[in-house]
Amino acid sequence: MRKSSFLISIVLFSFSVFAQKSLTLVHNAGVLRYDMPVIQEVENTCIVLADQQQLNQLENGLLSYILLDSDTQGKEYFLVYPIGDDPAVRVVYDEKVFAQYGKVLATFPTCLLMESNYTNLGTITEYNIRLVALGQEPIDYTCRTVIDTRPRPAPYDPLLEEILERVSEDSCEKHLRELCAIHNRDIKGPYNEAEAMPYLKKKYIEYGCDSIIVLPINTGSNTAVAGVRFGKKDPTLKQFTLIGGHSDTKGVGGENRHQGANDNASGQVGVLEAARVHQYYEFDYTIIYASHNGEEYGFLGSKALVNDLKRVDAKVVGGVFSYDMLGVRGTGIRYEAYNGNAGAEEFVDRIQEMVNTYKPYNVTSVKATSTSSQPTDVTTYWNNGYVCAWHNWGSGFGSIHTVADSIRSDFEPKHLTGATKTGIVVTAYYANPLGPVGIKNSAAQKNKPVITWKQTAAGALLISINTKKMGSDATLEIFDLHGRLYKRFNLPSAGSGVSTLSWNRRNKNGEKAANALLLLRYKDSVSTASAKVLVK
Questions:
Q1: Which of 106, 169, 201, 478 is deepest in the core (most CB within 10 A)?
Q2: Which pTM does this prediction carry?
Q3: Quick one: which of 96, 77, 82, 57 has its CA closest to 14?
């Protein structure tokens, strides 16, 4: 058996469950899985946390199941992924080895299901492994994806070609070197918050993002960061496209500091380059550039962001695109889309169309799958109803989570840039580019309403809408950055001219809007306009 130092990416959330819950496997449940308390899916098998009544329902539904553990109180369960130097070659693992570190409950072609704990699994030396800890909350299968209905295949768009031409190998390498120069990006070390997060926030501001989302993770001692570029059609988070990658690495280092060049400075490079390139264009839909900090300890950043999006019932247009390890050497890239709804097939087909049309890189395969247990941030999106795809690593990643994961050993400029281009063109396609910033050449722009505002000494907002032609059903809506509606004004038809109104910054419940950036959206039957307002 080949020995190697263990590599581990772990969810730190413990699996604490209520009494009289049983850990159960249900095979080939199909659509019936929506009615079961499924906590994870692995290769068409549902892992269910069920009480006796729910077990009876499985029997009544004539579903075959295997009871793995009838006493789950206070126990922790993990999917253990043994990995080799080439993920295309499945590792043949010895269950007897893993039995030394916990109880092996079930085996799958790609992983083991074990009852154990972080302390025991952290001492494995026989294999490189990745872990996914099972949580107690059932998967939320609610579809939060807007399926694209545009013609197939997508017609060639010169704007997308222009966007791709802006992607720079020099820029990607610069981002990579700056990230690797940060003293450390492990959330267990002091530099993640002191250096990495300020660097990312500065970059998102530099690249023209309209807002920066800062989300606490890990009980508030660390944060995840996302930049937001609001769409012209709907300048909120209600409908968005997202390109993301985790910014953290594993290994606090000391003198032997982990650069994490491949895992995952390279993925974060793709997100930063997307923000840099997209800044020159306007889009119909909002784009979120997500730095999923804390991925190495249980997808903490993506969980925080998804929870924030779900609170406003936000939906992704097309799908979420995630980067994880773009710098590995290889002849191509493989993308996989995850979700149980029809959007996954749609999403991967669109990715393949973009690849065939614009040829950003030699993509070896694009496929859809229903497996939701991948040890990366796509699992978070899948489990919350968002179609998602991720860059699946190629060969030669054996150095991750070690000091050898450096620019010298794991950085391949052309591969990194090519992988970056694919995510950038797919995200731009779904956000729908309208043209370079500042170019106003459509006939509709000639009659576009103009919104102006000022804040009074008492804190109220005086808002004016200047219309050359006001249609019927004119409204002005005021939102916060998360798309929550504060106030809606119905405006009397004025034909043309200036309509002025005053808002005391309170919603219908009398709650006052905080000092923050607000979004004003005017709409009537013939025109729309929006503006951003910073209230103090």
A1: 478
A2: 0.76
A3: 77
